[in-house]
Amino acid sequence: MDKKPITPEGQKKLREELDFIKNIKRQEIIDAISEARAHGDLKENAEYHAAREEQGLNEARIRELEDVLSRSQVIEYLELGIEDRVIFGSTVTIKDLNSNETSSYQIVGESEANIEMSTISLTTPIAKALLKREVGDIVEVETPGGTKEVEIIDIKLV
Hints:
This protein is an alpha/beta fold.
């Protein structure tokens, strides 16, 4: 089984979420089910059915997080001391050479990627194109809208 890379920060965040949903949210749902049961007839009890559905979703998320964490390998990218080229964990600032727009992304594992948080998975075409490149490099990136040329403006280890 291949281990999936994850940043130390990503692993910590997933462990915290798992701890919360196992030890706090799970009990809150059990309490809500007990309270709804006390209201009588379960067939027409919307609160009971909603709590049971939430319980199913919570248990599925627990299994998902446990699976992700068991298959992940923490990459201590800060300890590598590589700042002159793009590596896993790097935050890369790029400029689109057509639009002159700049964007910054941290390259992380699949389970922690979230475009709204400016983190992208190392399996994405843009991350694959940027890895091992240096500041000043012009990189061609395949996007759904076609090929883009971007220039690497900055590389940081957060």
